[in-house]
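cron nightly-structures :: item 1 of 1
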Amino acid sequence: MKKFLALILALVMALSLVACGSESSGGSTAESAGGEGGGQKIGISMPTQSLERWNRDGSYLDEQFKSAGYETILTYSDNDTNRQVSDIQNMIADGVDLLVVAAIDGEALNTVMNEAGEAGIPVIAYDRLIMNDNVSYYVSFDNYTVGTLQGQYVVDTLDLDNAAGPFNIEFTAGDPADNNAGYFFQGAVDVLQPYIDSGKLNVVSGQTDFDTVATAAWDSQTAMERAQNVLASYYADGTQVDVWLCSNDSTALGVAQAIESDYAGFNQPIITGQDGDEANLKNLVDGKQSMTVYKAVANEAVVTLDLAIAILEGTTVDEAFIEAAGWGFDCAYDTESYATSEGHNCPSLLLVPDVVTTDNMVEKLVDTGYYTQDADGYLHPAN
């Protein structure tokens, strides 16, 4: 049943988004009788509706929990940390039995996480780690691997082990408030650093540290403006940029816009991304972006539901739990990689992401039921 749900969730996404309504701190509350939930209430706190992927996450989670018989409170906090704190406090006051929280800022929820702990409410940190020891579990994709997949794509596409080079590369990373952003960036840098050290890759701007290349709130406009400044300062004479390593799709969208409007070179750079946003999949088809690392958030919702049921029923969660789950996708149980404080590791359930290009996008996204493809070859979220 769970495998079937994972496949059909994409087909009900549009209806779920309508049910979610406009972004508000009050969110939407939905009840469903019967099922495993037995009337228990789940609070789901998402960062924002301004990024396509969080709409998908919120919709999938809400649908999963409702289908299992739980009452849900789903909120989106408009990338406002104070608002997210208020949203979660309202859920605690409303008597939720468990919280699923995708943090805007993983270090800014200490007070409300402590309140959840005092109320005896278990917390699942969803996709982004929350730096508080009251977090019970962390469910995400292997974030470091996301970056290594991007870096390895560059290595393979440019044939860096054999090509003469040098090739010019620039970096655009994610939101400093998002703990995942550092993992994405470091994974890519660790793959590419040997080629930078050898001179095979050349960062013309010299901008290689995370703080310099980071993008607040993963904002496309911010990414575009920084890319325009880099192009004006270092590439205005027609110097070629061969690669622009972007940590996700919203930043890749901004960089692609800057390349289209402000780049004096003759070539189309390799541009990486992550998430499979609709606009970026269009850019893949149009040759404006080279790849995206896709994370099947429907599967992430399946894992989160099963984990929540186990927590609420007092079931032991360990490697045996993962093996017995019967998921039709890879997920690892990890107790070493992520810590909510020094010396306090957070048990984590980590899914495996996929590289998507024009060569495999039908297999990875259309054949799985997550997207449809129109006559022009463009992909759209299934509805």
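cron nightly-structures :: done
The first strand starts at residue 28 and ends at 30.
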